[in-house]
Design a protein that fits this description.
Radius of gyration: 22 Å
Structural class: alpha+beta
Order of helices and strands: EHEEHEEHEEHHHHHHEEEEHEEEEEEE
Helix content: 10-25%
Strand content: 25-35%
Largest sheet: 8 strands, antiparallel
Number of strands: 18
C-alpha cells in the first residue's frame, strides 16, 4: 500500500517566512513556517490524501518522526533524555495533566535526532566545546567582571561546564551575563578574531535576537557547526544543541521530550536539565556525503530510524522495504512505485508512505528524495 502524505507547516515563532515556500515553489504566506511533520505522533499526525491521518493507519506505532525544518531565527537551546530518563520522567509526572506547565515529559521515549542540510548553509550549535578552547576564545573578549568570572568558573575543578550552566541559568549571574554579552558583541567586529570570527558573529547574532538572555552565554560554550547542503549532524541523547538558521530534513525517534536551556520565553527547569545533560565536551562529527552512486547513507547508532539521500537521474532506484518507509521529495520530478504497480507522483515537500507489506519500492524520474525507515 502506498499513501500520499502532506501536513500544514507549524507556525513556531522561530520559523522562516520564505524557506519552505521557496522549497515548494509557492508564494510565502507572510507567516513563520517552522516545521512540517510526517509521522503519526499524536501532536500532529500527517494528513493522508483522500482523508484521515497517518495514526489511523499505523495505530501510532511508527518508531520515527520525519520533518522538514526551516529556521529563520535561533531555536531554543535544548537537550533530550535517554530512554531510561524519559521513562522515569514520564512515570514521575503521571499525575500531571497533559497541558500542565510543570510537565517536562510528553511521552516515555528518547529523542535522538539527525539533521541533514537542504539549504546551501545551515548553522547550528551542537555539543559543548572543550573548556581549553573556550578559554582561548575568551581571550578575544574584553576582560570585564563577567568575562573574568566566567573564566574563573570554567577553570575550576570538577564538572566546570555543568557548574557554569547552573550559574548562568539559575539567576545568579544577571549583571555578569549582560557584561559578557556586551563583550561578545564588541568582539564580533574584531579583525583579528582568526578561527573564532564566524563563531563570534554567530553568537552576536543570537544576542541580537535574544538580548539579555543567559542562553547567549550558554551558546558561547557550544560548538558552532556550519553544514553545507547534503551534510548532516547526529545529536545523541543528553547533547546540548540549537539550530540557528537554514532549511533541513530532520528525523528523530517518535518523541516530543524537550528540556530547554535558554533562548526561549518558555519554562526552563534547570535542575531537570542538569540531571539529563551530558557535559562531556568535544566536537560533534559532521556526516558528509559518501555516496554509492546516487545514494548517500547517514549512519546513526540508534535502532529507531535510518535515512538516505537519493539522487535520481533517469534510471530507477529500487529499495527493499523492511518496515514502514517514507520517501520525501526535495527537488526535481519523481515518482514512487510499488511492486504491485501503484504509482505516486510526488510534489516537492510531500511524502509517499509504504507500509511494511511492501517488499520493494522504486523511485524514478529526475530529482532528489530522502528515504526514511526504521533502523537496520
Amino acid at each position: 500500500m502506498l499513501l500520499s502524505l502532506t501536513n500544514t507547516p507549524r507556525d513556531y515563532a522561530w520559523g522562516s517566512d520564505s524557506l519552505l515556500a521557496g522549497l515548494e515553489g509557492r508564494t510565502p504566506t507572510g507567516l513563520p513556517e517552522a516545521e512540517v511533520w510526517f509521522g503519526d505522533h499524536p501532536g500532529d499526525p500527517a494528513d493522508v490524501a483522500g482523508g484521515g491521518t497517518l495514526d489511523q493507519v499505523t495505530g501510532g506505532t511508527l518508531p520515527y518522526l520525519l520533518k522538514l525544518l526551516a529556521a529563520g531565527r535561533p531555536l531554543s537551546i535544548q537537550v533530550h533524555p535517554t530512554i531510561e530518563q524519559a521513562r522515569a520522567g514520564w512515570a514521575r509526572e503521571s499525575g500531571l495533566d497533559a497541558d500542565d506547565p510543570q510537565r517536562n515529559y510528553r511521552d516515555d521515549n528518547h529523542k535522538p535526532e539527525l539533521l541533514v542540510a537542504l539549504s546551501e548553509r545551515f548553522e547550528s550549535l551542537s555539543g559543548l566545546r572543550p573548556v581549553a578552547d573556550t578559554l582561548s576564545l575568551l581571550d578575544l573578549l574584553d576582560g570585564g567582571d563577567g568575562v573574568q568570572q566566567l573564566r574563573t568558573r570554567l577553570s575550576a575543578e570538577g564538572d566546570a561546564l555543568r557548574d557554569v550552566i547552573a550559574w548562568l541559568l539559575g539567576g545568579e549571574a544577571g549583571t555578569q551575563v549582560d557584561g559578557i554579552i556586551r563583550a561578545i558583541v564588541a568582539a564580533s567586529s574584531r579583525s583579528d578574531a582568526g578561527e573564532w570570527e564566524t563563531t563570534l558573529r554567530a553568537i552576536a547574532g543570537v544576542a541580537e535576537t535574544y538580548p539579555g538572555d543567559p542562553g547567549v552565554v550558554v551558546a558561547l560554550l557550544m560548538n558552532h557547526v556550519v553544514l553545507e547542503r547534503g551534510e548532516g549532524v547526529f545529536l545523541r541523547a543528553g547533547l546540548l544543541h540549537a539550530y540557528l538558521s537554514g532549511l533541513g530534513v530532520e528525523i528523530m525517534a517518535a518523541s516530543d521530550n524537550v528540556l530547554r536551556g535558554g533562548l526561549t520565553p518558555k519554562r526552563i527547569d534547570v535542575p531537570e536539565l542538569l540531571a539529563i545533560l551530558d557535559t562531556t565536551p568535544g566536537e560533534v562529527p559532521v556526516l558528509r556525503a559518501q555516496s554509492d552512486g546516487g545514494v548517500t547513507p547517514y549512519p546513526v547508532p540508534v535502532p529507531d530510524f535510518a535515512l538516505e539521500r537519493v539522487v535520481v537521474d533517469g534510471g530507477p532506484v529500487a529499495f527493499d522495504v523492511s518496515g514502514p518507509t517514507m520517501v520525501l521529495a526535495t527537488a526535481g520530478d519523481v515518482t514512487v512505485s510499488s511492486a504491485a504497480g501503484e504509482n505516486l507522483h510526488l510534489a516537492i515537500g510531500t511524502v509517499a508512505f509504504a507500509d511494511a507489506d511492501e517488499a520493494t519500492i522504486t523511485v524514478s524520474g529526475a530529482g532528489e528524495v530522502f528515504v526514511a525507515g526504521p533502523g537496520r
